[in-house]
Amino acid sequence: MGWARDKRRSASSLYNKTAAYCEKKKIELYLWFPVFSENSMIRSLDGLVDFHGEKIPAAVSRNSGDEDFSFCCPNNTHNIEKILDIFESEFSQLPFNGIFLDKIRYPSCANSRAGRGLETMFSCFCDFCMIQYKEAGFDTRALIAALKSPPASPIFIKSIQENGEYEFNDPLFTEFFSLKGKFIKDSLEHICTYFRKKKLKIGFDVFAPFLSPFVGQNLSSLSALCDFIKPMMYRATYAPAGLPFETEALLRESADFFDCTGIIPGSIDARASPFDLYFTAKDLHTLVKTSSCPVYAGFEINRKENICNAHPAYIEETMRAYAKAGSQGFVLSWDLMDAPEENILKVAEIIGLPHKTQ
Ligand SMILES: [Zn+2]
């Protein structure tokens, strides 16, 4: 269930009513809770710093909707305290069974202003991060120098390691992305300890496996911290986290820098919506094989012109392919109350529920 803090009194009664209903039906109720993004409107959080030493601005302006996609630094301990304080003061008294953590990552190229994708991908260089790099023995000066003078030939991915991380032909990049994964994991470990003390179950919302290393998500290690993991396998979404949107942005923004053919074959049409089914199901399977917890693939049931074209036929081929890839459940994204009924009925048909329209 999403968060609604603006109308606190009525929201609290809606949460309580929903919790009572779910308990009767033996359904677990999780609160959706964004971690490293989207909460800067509630508490002032410190953002990310790029390799020029400049603050990274939000990709979209704050007044254009609910989500501004500005990210805060996961290494900044003040940020983490403030994020947990948001839960403590706004939601800790409500009867949830679990917490579903979203935005547990760094921004992607798609979260950047046009032409600033590398600056966004290669973050963060704030004071907190510089201490972490130093402790890890990482040569930030060499990385910043490499970023300021793009390579004569693009950096390429030599291999994919067992834990899903990429090995680049230049070890500096292998190490950088590995450290990003470690930073997110370390922060989440701390955050999860807080929620476990509250006796809450934990779910994670994460990027598709092939995109996850670029945003600091090492999915196999993250899966050890939660009760279920939901990779966003959004083949029909041309918006953040959607595969056509993110893949196109990655290829476009990093074109002079990375050769991504090691993970995204040239035969894949990055903008095609729906995104390649075989490729996506295979990618999902890589997570199923290495995950410590059940994998519930996320796919879209909402429909929005020019953003998400989810129809019953799309839902059917997607669910069948993801089930075959080993997904042990599904997360219907994004908003059940706003999904076309024909899409909901198709899901019900596939999972074998009787057709009821009320
Ligand atoms: Zn930082």
Task: Give a verbal description of the structure.
It is a single chain. This protein has 358 residues and is α/β, with parallel strands linked by helices. The protein has one domain (8-351): Alpha-Beta Barrel (TIM Barrel). It is 38% helix and 13% strand. It contains eleven helices and eleven strands. The strands form four sheets. A four-stranded parallel sheet has the order 1-2-5-6, with helices on one face. Strands 4-3-7 form a three-stranded mixed sheet. Helix 2 links the parallel strand 1 and strand 2 (98-102). Helix 9 runs parallel beside helix 10 and helix 10 (312-324) packs parallel to helix 11. The protein is globular. The protein binds zinc ion. Residues 48, 73, 75-76, 124, 126, 128-129 line the site of zinc ion. Zinc ion (ZN) binds at residues 48, 73, 75-76, 124, 126, 128-129.
Q: What sort of overall outline do the alpha carbons produce when their principal axes are compared? A: globular
Residues in helices, as a percent range: 25-40%
CATH architecture: Alpha-Beta Barrel
Indicate how many domains the architecture comprises: 1
**Number of separate strands:** 11
- Major β-sheet annotation: 4 strands, parallel
Tell me the quaternary state: single chain
- Counted by DSSP, the helix tally is 11
Strand order of the largest sheet: 1-2-5-6
Distance between the termini: 20 Å
CATH topology: the name is TIM Barrel
Q: What's the CATH class label?
A: Alpha Beta
Task: Give the low-pLDDT segments.
Answer: none
The ligands found in this model are: zinc ion
Q: What is the gyration radius calculated from CA atoms?
A: 20 Å
Class from secondary-structure proportions: alpha/beta
Give the overall average pLDDT: 92
Strand-residue proportion: 5-15%
Order of helices and strands: HEHEHHHEEHEHEHEHEEEHEH
